Amino acid sequence: MPQKRLTMRRIREILRLKWDKGLSQRVIALSCRISPSTVNEYLKRAEKAGVHWPLPEEMTEEALIQLLYPDEQKETSTKKVVPDWEQIRKELKRKNVTMRLLWTEYKEKHPNGYQYSQFTELYRRWLKKQEPVKRNEHKAGDKMFVDYTGQKVAVYDPETGEVNEAEIFVAVLGASNYTYAEAQWGQDSANWINGHTRACNFFEGVPDAIVPDNLKSGVTTANYYDPEINLAYQEWAEYYGVAILPARAAKPRDKAKVEGAVLIVERWILARLRDRKFFSLAALNKAMEYLLKELNDRPMQQYEQSRHCLFEEIEKAALNPLPEKPYEFAVRKIARVHVDYHVEYKKHRYSVPHTLIHEEVTLRVTEHLVEIFHKSEKDPVATHPLSYAPGRFTTLAEHMPPNHRFNVEWTPERFLRWADEIGPSTRRCIEYLLKTRQHPEQAFRSCLGILRLANKYSKSSLENACGQFGSGDVISYREIKLLLDAVPPPTQPVEPCLPPHINIRGEQYYT
Prior knowledge:
Elements: H1 8-19, H2 25-32, H3 36-49, H4 61-68, H5 70-77, H6 85-91, H7 99-109, H8 116-128, E1 143-148, E2 153-156, E3 163-173, E4 179-184, H9 189-203, E5 209-212, E6 219-221, E7 228-229, H10 231-240, E8 243-244, H11 256-270, H12 281-297, E9 299-300, E10 305-306, H13 307-315, E11 331-336, E12 342-345, E13 348-351, E14 360-365, E15 369-373, E16 382-385, E17 393-394, H14 412-422, H15 424-435, H16 444-457, H17 459-467, H18 477-486
Parallel strand pairs: 1-5, 5-8, 13-17
Antiparallel strand pairs: 1-3, 2-3, 3-4, 6-7, 9-10, 11-14, 12-13, 14-15, 15-16
């Protein structure tokens, strides 16, 4: 075992005591608490190197060691350089980068370095010492992992105070861990596919493959050998030129990247928003966008680098280019315009020009818009933001006829006169419906349905049903019909088919 080298302070002390004080080597050894042979070795090395006392003040310890041990410095200069294995691991994530290429570049810089077999063996040994999660290597631009969080966020309706729960969609790239998250109204095909589109826009590129969970919006039938992909999802994948590789059931390691990303989004984004109250999906996404930037800019412990920096360095250039136009998911539905010049989609009603009453129209519904076409899909006759509020109306003033009338035959006054013919309770219900709508025309459909119940159940039954509602109750066509259905119809006395007459023989004649 080589002798441990003395510090510069002790070497200076040996030289001072010998050349300045003239002490013997034995006395110097006792003073410095070292062996006489060590004192003799350092004095010989100093004399051979031409070192004299006093030493120059600017001389450093490294400079003194180089003078005393010139042979050792030659040996260290030929020592093999150990590669930066962390950098090697990072470079291997780049597309088309191989271990052979990295070794060739290493040898160009260090001709006396390790040979290829030893180079790869040392890398494997280093890799085994790292954390187990680092063994799952992902190529840059290869895969994007997607899923929903288990946690939802409440969004309040500013008018009614109703609470709707928003789903949180998460996407993460495999090599850089660059993460995208957004709030959606649901996990249906429209939100699922449009979430993929916005994720690719956020990443400014398209990966080679996407690894989803076995969500019904993406995978119709989960199977390891032959999974059946949802048709709309498959069309999106063909449009963007990506492969869909669903994770195996009960195999969380297949989508470990997004499992970790979901956990991080819940802890670093959703947990920080827990005390905030949101009144629109746009406001929630705006708050998430700010925290998402912080998350991607925060350094990761195992990489000592942020997700954004790693994305810019190794993954952004490896992604495939985006198509010229983003994919737009749309649902089409045929509907007929009702007498209140509205059409219905998922229990919400949208207005069209009043001149189209009773006409057939086509609805084209995207994630955010409802476009209504008549006869041709070139120019929509009406465009509305998509709403998820059931039983409510989205009405444009320009769609209404003059004086808010869609037909001269139907007016609020006519409905009230009709209700007067039935009774005061019926009139009170009709007045309630006309006053509780933003525009009276929006209540015409319900009023018409209630008043026509008199034809089926009788005027007295309708009047009795309307009389059961108090001043604070919510009145609707459905509630009134339920009351009428719960009461059995009164039995009517059977009247003879024919009136008595002298020319009618009657049943006694035939007995």
